[in-house]
Amino acid sequence: MALAERANGVVINADASQVYRDLSILSARPDAADEARVPHRLFGYIDGATACSAAQWAADARAAIAEAHDEARLPILVGGTGLYLRTLIAGIAPVPDIDPAIRAEVRALPVAEAHIALSREDPAAAARLAPADTARVARALEVIRATGRTLADWQTQPSGGIGASIDLRSLILLPDRDELVARCDARLIAMFDGGAVNEVARLVARADVPLDAPVRRAIGVPEIAAMLAGAIDREQALREAQIATRRYAKRQYTWFRNQPPPDWRRVAEVSRDDLKEYFNIII
Fold first, then answer.
1. What whole-number distance in Å separates Cα of residue 220 and Cα of residue 197?
2. I want to staple 79 with a disulfide (CB 3.0 to 4.6 A). Which of 15, 97, 207, 220 is the partner?
3. pTM higher than 0.90 for the full model?
4. Which residues, in sequence order, are CB contacts of 238 under 8 Å at separation 6+?
5. Helix axes 196-204, 221-228, angle to 10 degrees
6. Nearest-5° angle of CA 139, CA 128, CA 15?
7. How far apart are CA 103 and CA 100, in angstroms?
8. Closest CA relative to residue 244, chosen from 198, 188, 283
9. Taking the mean position of all CA atoms in its chain, how far away is CA 145?
10. What is the rounded CA–CA span in Å between residue 131 and residue 88?
11. Quick one: CA torsion of 143, 149, 150, 152, rounded to 10 degrees?
């Protein structure tokens, strides 16, 4: 936000949970004071009953970036969803829409059966994916069944990326891991005490939000939902949400350390005093 103030910028969300209107507290979305301070885009703009895909977000982000450029503003993308960023910058495989009947058939399979079927129909994908990775196993299986081509084959022909048409300046924050874990744990406590439980209660009470909707799988939602259902107590729900957050942070840390191009700048912290140097690099 300090950078946006100094560079006439607009902050654009690149976090898969913060897109949902239903998760303000639990996704640590910017609050009203933040949004009044500088322009924000793509935060809380999708209803939880609608699943937001990387392709949809990338299209929306392209439009938000173009709007910022038209207004002579600096678009500042912030968020940790690597798939979203990669889709926007490098493009996405042009897989055609999956036949609803095929999708329903695949999604109805227990994940163990789906993985066995994938081993027969796309052995390379089955070897690459963990048997318990429900979403990715189902995606790979439905693509091979619907198109006759493997997902890996489709991914060799990405389209729609904007990387070649923009001047991208990147900054990856890789903080001290112990400090990161401590901040994650403290943030979960603040969320539980600050309204996250009521937020999840409203979400699970909605009959129009499917049980497998992405918003229902966001970290903290399953744990609080189990607490509300009486399956676990508050202490266990908090502990399990903290563990899930730590695991996600570890995967996210590893992804951003290894997957983006090596020339993307990586830092342990960014203070306000560092902003002038970084700002000058951007300008």
1. 9
2. 15
3. no
4. 188, 189, 192, 223
5. 80
6. 55
7. 5
8. 188
9. 27
10. 28
11. -110
